[in-house]
Amino acid sequence: MNYTSIEKIGKWIAILTFLFGAFLIAAYLINHDVEAGTLLYFYMLFAGITNFVALLLVIVSYFLIRENKKRALITSAFIIISYSVVLCISYFIF
Q1: Backbone torsion region of residue 50, taken as left when φ is above 0, otherwise alpha when ψ lies between -120 and 50, otherwise beta
Q2: How does pLDDT run across 8-20, given as a tens digit for each residue?
């Protein structure tokens, strides 16, 4: 797997988990439903693990590439920002 595909996958994972997580948080805050809370809990686990794996891949590729390391830092920043959704979910659930 080359770096550009890792970078694109990392950005898409970060963007999609952020948007879907923000949507789930809004739905939970509107309804305060137990099923929505359970869905948020499992989504928190899924998004946390997925973002962690993507972040590890980007960090490893950062050390392996020779030039244009700025793109790897931007992608890792996107992934770290998407962790804010996971932290918000854990705050609202627990």
Answers
A1: alpha
A2: 888 898 889 888 8
Using CB atoms within 10 A of its CB, is residue 32 exposed (0-12), middle (13-18) or buried (19+)?
exposed
Specify the residue for token string 């627990």.
Answer: 94
What the block records as the tokens of 4 is 């550009």
Contact 86, 19 (CB under 8 A): no
CA dist 89 and 28 (Å) reads 10
pTM for the complete prediction?
A: 0.81
Q: How far apart are CA 51 and CA 39, in angstroms?
A: 18
**In this predicted model, what pLDDT tens digit does every residue of 41-66 receive, in sequence order?**
898 899 889 999 999 988 888 888 87
